[in-house]
Design brief:
This protein is α/β, with parallel strands linked by helices. The chain contains twelve helices and twelve strands. 36% of the residues lie in helices and 22% in strands. The strands form two sheets. It has an eight-stranded mixed sheet, sandwiched between helices. It starts with a helix and ends with a helix.
């Protein structure tokens, strides 16, 4: 990545590695991760449970618990500054203000003994120089923005449904108009109708404030609906990434192909879906070579010993696969010989 390209990005994660160390055992959660995001863009981060998606988000937010977590290497450059080198006091001013996060479960994200208005106002008081009265007034405005009457600011979380709690969490995350919003599976606990409403709300607010967003999810359909580009994670690595249309229509990595093959297709009648065989590798003892090779239907002996390098495909997205790497190398040889 050139220095000029890096300056154009709001967020640039470079070679990020995060481990957890417990009782002498090391869990390799994130391994050499590279992701970039421009202002106003939405990136979908997809992968099975244990792929490292949430740990990546915590790394950006500076919330990796230490101990047992530790950032081993890398940079998280946000608007030209490396967040990993930023003093803790300054990072507190960024977190919740310029970068906000919607955590997985709205049921446990809210404080049960504080009213929702108090919880929204608290964020505003911490990051903006306003009076307590003004902060409560803005809290009411934020509730109205996410479709909840301001009069309910005095209610407690248990008085709201699951969908409304998620709206409150979104209001808290957007209270200071952040430049970057990280949404960690924001619709997982919601039914389909409420999920659609929350996604439409997030898209509308993102467009209104030109907020960049990282959407962490298992749902390829949600990513297609909301995101501009996608990164597929497996065993702590991004194995394929690029613009939504490129990745969805010109899928290159066997893992991504497996994800699509396991989704029901309304256009074709099939008796049985094709799941990806096997389980995610043990993060305390990852396989050598390509980490997907034990489950890959196309794996060769080379895949178990050689680690693939990222390859830029002809359609403009990146995939990490030895077969693709050899195809590109062979094409280059043919060009030279021709």
């Amino acid at each position: 990545m050139t220095e000029q390209a890096s300056k154009q990005d709001l967020l640039s994660i470079q070679d990020l590695s995060i481990v957890y160390e417990v009782d002498g055992e090391t869990t390799y959660a994130v391994n050499g991760l590279n992701i970039s995001l421009k202002r106003g863009e939405t990136l979908g981060l997809i992968g099975e449970t244990g792929a490292g998606k949430t740990t990546t988000a915590l790394g950006i937010m500076g919330l990796v618990p230490n101990p047992p977590g530790r950032i081993v290497s890398g940079k998280v450059v946000f608007d030209g500054e490396d967040l990993l080198q930023m003093p803790k006091e300054k990072m507190r001013g960024v977190r919740g203000n310029r970068i906000s996060m919607i955590f997985q479960d709205p049921m446990t994200s809210l404080n049960p003994v504080m009213t929702v208005g108090e919880q929204i106002a608290e964020v505003i008081l911490i990051h903006e120089r306003v009076s307590k009265k003004a902060s409560f007034q803005k809290a009411g405005e934020m509730l109205e923005m996410v479709g909840i009457p301001a009069a309910r600011a005095g209610d407690f979380p248990h008085q709201f449904s699951g969908g409304m709690k998620q709206r409150v969490v979104i209001a808290i995350a957007l209270a200071c108009n952040p430049d970057l919003l990280i949404a960690d599976e924001p619709t997982t606990a919601l039914d389909v109708t409420i999920q659609a409403q929350v996604l439409d709300l997030m898209k509308d607010l993102k467009n209104r404030y030109h907020t960049a967003m990282i959407l962490i999810t298992h749902d390829l359909g949600v990513v297609a609906q909301v995101c501009d580009k996608v990164a597929i994670m497996y065993a702590g690595e991004v194995v394929e990434s690029g613009a939504i249309r490129d990745v969805y229509e010109n899928t290159r990595h066997p893992y991504t192909k497996g994800l699509f093959a396991s989704i029901p297709d309304l256009d074709h009648s099939v008796g049985r879906l094709k799941p990806i065989k096997g389980m995610m590798p043990d993060p305390t003892n990852p396989p050598s070579g390509c980490k997907f090779h034990p489950r890959c239907p196309d794996a060769t002996a080379t895949c178990s010993v050689s680690e693939p390098e990222p390859v830029l495909t002809e359609t403009g997205h990146v995939a990490r696969c030895l077969m693709l790497q050899s195809m590109v190398e062979q094409t280059d040889v043919n060009r030279v010989q021709g």
